[in-house]
Amino acid sequence: MFTALFGSVEQGIIYAIMALGVYLTFRVLDFPDLTVDGSFVTGAATAAMMIALGYHPILATLLAIVAGFIAGCMTGLLHTKGKINPLLSGILMMIALYSINLRIMGLSAENAIVKPNIPLMNADTIFSQFQVFWSNLGIDAALTSFIKNTLGISPAPSTWGTILVVLIITLIIKFIADWFLKTEVGLAIRATGDNKRMIRSFSANTDGLIVLGLGLSNALVAFSGALIAQYAKFADANMGIGMIVIGLASVIIGEAIFGTKTIFRTTLAVVAGAIIYRIIYAVALRIDWLDTSDMKLITAIIVILALVIPQLVDKRREKKRKEKRQMERLEQHREITRLQGGKNLA
Amino acid sequence: MLKLEGINKIFNEATPDEKIALDNINLHLAPGDFVTIIGSNGAGKSTMMNMISGALTPDFGAVTIDGKEVTRLPEYKRSQFIGRVFQDPMAGTAPSMTIEENLAIAYSRNAKRGLRIGVSRGRRDFFRTSLEKLGLGLEDRFNAKVGMLSGGERQALSLLMATFTRPSILLLDEHTAALDPSRAELITRLTKQLVEEGNLTTLMVTHNMQQAIDLGNRLIMMDKGQIILSIDDAKKPTLTIPDLMTEFEKIRGEKMNSDRALLGS
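The joint structure predicted for all components is written out below.
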């Protein structure tokens, strides 16, 4: 159980980068971008292809980020220049990317044009390279024995290195996002999602900002895909199915639990939401009568509930408030009538 | 400062709904001119404002601002030198962003936006002193989301945001019409103050004849897409509402449909 949960947290931290990308489009730009299902795989495919060809994993990951950025910009151009509805732009790009991803993975094969997956079993990844450096430090053994002595729990992960490296990467991305959304360009992107007419009247090119926002968002999604491919040691054409809903679930869960008072808090909530989602996922998988394939249904239900319940709660609250107010007014009327009645008698 | 030459615009051309919105409009504004525009619904006032701001492009004619022809320049580029306040108090501000963030967006109007922090310490001081001029206590609510402000407060903020970068042209499109009378009066007073301080070249559309007479140094009346009356700064100070009504009757040969114009706020 501990190992499974520990793995979920590690994955959750990586998926948090994807969730931050989804936050950028869904919440900040108010653009429901479905490119994510495709661009996540684009990131994974690009990184896996480069690594399989023997390039350095950091270079492979950087190229994956660029590929995601281009994919996002394409969706933005379809919407702004092609005047195609936002949802349709994303769906079109997602479908196009499916073929493109097979081609990207095909680049790693000598005798095929397309390839449905790339295994990275014995390849060098960011994580395996960090592990070489990390295991020399001897911190793993120290931490494990420390936990055993103080908490009395003996199970420990095989290494603390992975969680540390993903946590550092994700937190850096989070802080960059916080900073970016406060810069002049960041403010303009937020205003584009908030009030297009207003920001146009302050000399901002909303089309350009939408393209930039979608590019950055999908760059993060592809980054997350590249890291997941290296973490799981494979890339697969179908690994992105439902990714947008997972991202959305993470954003909604995080916001519901931690609130959205400031940007700093919201991005933190999104990261936490992604981790919580992975933990729910791991726990659900341990229920006997549930199958792994049920997870997509469960994710959809989580998002539906998260979207519907707040409306019901608001309605109920509104009704209660109105009823209370009405009661008070009735009470006042009764009071007035009683006083007048008393006067009349006197 | 602003020149409109031979502006024509037809909506829904070659359909039963065809409407001549602007019919050969010519208008010159000298620097510092404050022109109020009156006219009945559908006279072409807002269409003319949209031609200047770039939200619409004319079928024929040219728009020149500060000596530069801008007829085909897209709205977002033109808004570098045009400040605007809309009728809807919700239209001019970003509701889910804070007061200072909104001000920072307005502040970057005439500079290229980069990766500098929008609300820097130096700017915050400037924002504070600017907000103090409004006298609404907004300077103490810097981090309040603009969506939490009342309509009047939002419109005052919009007005400040539209003016504090000293735009070449200020366009006010019935910006007090959606407010209750006391709020409208406040915004009218602030308009006068901010325009005078910045010596801004201003065009203001209004339904309220009294407001049109009280504010500005020139007045024009529009009807059916044409400018039918233009009062210059020599005659404006002595102008009264009855004067305007008689002028209209003289020109159009019919009584002005004046209920809304008289009573409208």
